[in-house]
Structure formats: C-alpha cells, structure tokens
Amino acid sequence: MKKFLLYAIVIAMAGTVSAFVISTGKERVSQLWYEFVGTDANNPQHYQLLGDGSQAPSCNASTSNRCAVKAEPNETYGEDYPELSDPGIEIRNKD
Known about the structure:
18% of the residues lie in helices and 28% in strands. By secondary structure, the chain is of the alpha+beta class. It has one domain.
C-alpha cells in the first residue's frame, strides 16, 4: 500500500510540474523583407529593410545572386537589419 501511495504522489507531482512552462523571455517576432544591398550576404549590415517589410521583392528563388531575405529583425543591429541565423529565413535571388 505504501508503494502504491508513493507512486501516486510521484505521478501527481510529475503532472503538476509538467503543467508549468518555463519562459525564455523572447517572443517570436514577425519576419520582414530585407533587400540585399552589399557584397557580403552573411553580414546583416549589407541589407536594408524593404519598405515597411511586408511586401515580397520581385525576384525568384532559383538563381545564385542574392536579392532579399525574409527574416526576423536582428537583435544586435535593430529592426533595420535581418537576423540571418533565423531558422525560418526565406532567401530570394535575382534573375
């Protein structure tokens, strides 16, 4: 009987603990479009916000010359630059 009671308490505690979510404090921000205007595609400062960031550029995704990216704003440089490590980044290339 004691083992049963102990197992019931452990299961109840596990359920209680798993009901709480630990927040990292970082909310997911909407992705914006940034035009590539430089020479280094890996440098966020070689991009600029495209308008208000909501309109996709008129370039495709099949060629090798970088045109624009859709990414979250960069935490270090601010909203005017993309976070190039964003796992959901979308890359567009020039025709």
